[in-house]
Amino acid sequence: MSGGLHPARPWLVAAILLAWQVVSGVAAAQDIRAGTLVINGAWARAVPADAQATEGFVVVRNTGPLPDRLIGAWSRQAETVQLRERDPASATAFRRSEEGLPIPAGGVLTMEPGGPHLALTGLREPLGPGAAVGVVLRFERAGEVTVQLRGHDH
């Protein structure tokens, strides 16, 4: 046998591809498309029942030739949702992003702990592990898209 897969190992290729999708967070069932944007990896910090605030995170890939920008967000399950970014004047502080968060053409915006994120305040329902809060993300070019931020203990 030359030039092909060993007949006893096609399952190995499938297993490796599935593992890569899980590790890289690009499982197709979790992708949300809005124009040229692909949004996935949405989650929020699970918080105690009496907590009024949490942080949300998503990954936004821009597959198009033009840049886009996340310019706002809102939720019926929270009083406010702010886009937050690192404050360049401080090593630890964050500030509200007044101009939005850029997503370069062919690039990625990764919202993660310690980096840009969504700040949800005035939660109207507890966000424990497994619970979800719907958030509408507003993009400059792609418009509005709803994501479900599922609570996780991280």
Give a structural overview.
This protein has 154 residues and is mainly beta. The protein has one helix spanning 10-24; strands at 32-34, 37-45, 53-62, 68-74, 78-86, 94-96, 101-103, 108-110, 117-123, 132-139, 143-152. Strands 1, 2, 3, 4, 5, 6, 7, 8, 9, 10 and 11 form an 11-stranded mixed beta sheet that branches. The model is unreliable at 17-29 (pLDDT under 50).
Give the overall pLDDT as a whole number: 86
Terminal CA distance? 48 Å
**Helix percentage range:** under 10%
The count of helical stretches stands at: 1
Q: Quick one: biggest sheet?
A: 11 strands, mixed
Shape: globular
Question: Structural class of the secondary elements?
Answer: mainly beta
Tally the beta strands.
11
Backbone CA Rg: 18 Å
- SSE string, helix = H, strand = E? HEEEEEEEEEEE
> What percent strand?
over 45%
Give unreliable regions as ranges: 17-29
Précis, in short:
The protein is mostly beta strands and 154 residues long.
Identify the notable features of this structure and list them briefly.
single chain; 154 residues; mainly beta; 11-stranded mixed beta sheet; 10% helix; 47% strand; globular
SSE diagram, text form:
Blueprint: H1 10-24, E1 32-34, E2 37-45, E3 53-62, E4 68-74, E5 78-86, E6 94-96, E7 101-103, E8 108-110, E9 117-123, E10 132-139, E11 143-152
Parallel strand pairs: 2-11
Antiparallel strand pairs: 1-2, 2-3, 3-8, 3-9, 4-7, 4-10, 5-6, 5-9, 10-11
